[in-house]
Amino acid sequence: MSFQNDKEVRTWSENYKLTWEDFKGKANYNVGSAAVTTSGISFGYSVKVKNNNVVSFTTEVFANFYPQKSWYKKELANNHILKHEQLHFDITELYARKFRQQIEMLEPDNEIKNTLKTLNKIINDELKALQDLFDEHSNHSINKEEELKWHLFIKEELAKLAQYKSVD
Length: 168
Fold this sequence. Notes:
By secondary structure, the chain is an alpha+beta fold. The chain has one domain. The chain has helices at 79-104, 112-138, 144-160; strands at residues 2-4, 7-11, 35-36, 39-50, 53-65, 71-72. A hairpin with a 2-residue loop joins strand 1 and strand 2 (7-11). Helix 1 (79-104) packs parallel to helix 3 (144-160). The chain is elongated.
């Protein structure tokens, strides 16, 4: 567990699975969901400039889970729903890996800052679209057959990009 700007954050790890204790937000009883995972990608970069030209750059990309913004309804909580919420976090990690893969292909130039910001927006838009599609197909964990298909699909996609995984 880490903190960013005094906000609790859990960074994705291959060796850690979410537990209900990680969900510290107040449950929203105005919606039908049994639980909500709030996760996202954060990134930072630095550039090295020589003679007014960018000669190199470094980046950091993290798949984060936000405990204070994630919640569950105790009376509806079960292992199936927890696995659904974990898969949302795993999807965030998948897109962090895709982001790292795309960054690896970039060459330093004077537009690198804009390129990174544009790439970040594209990755986050794609991440949101897949999160929404997962919920739509699985009917928010109700369709167990689709849920299983998604678990297998995300596991395969993560394996394809294993070289870009978050490091513990």
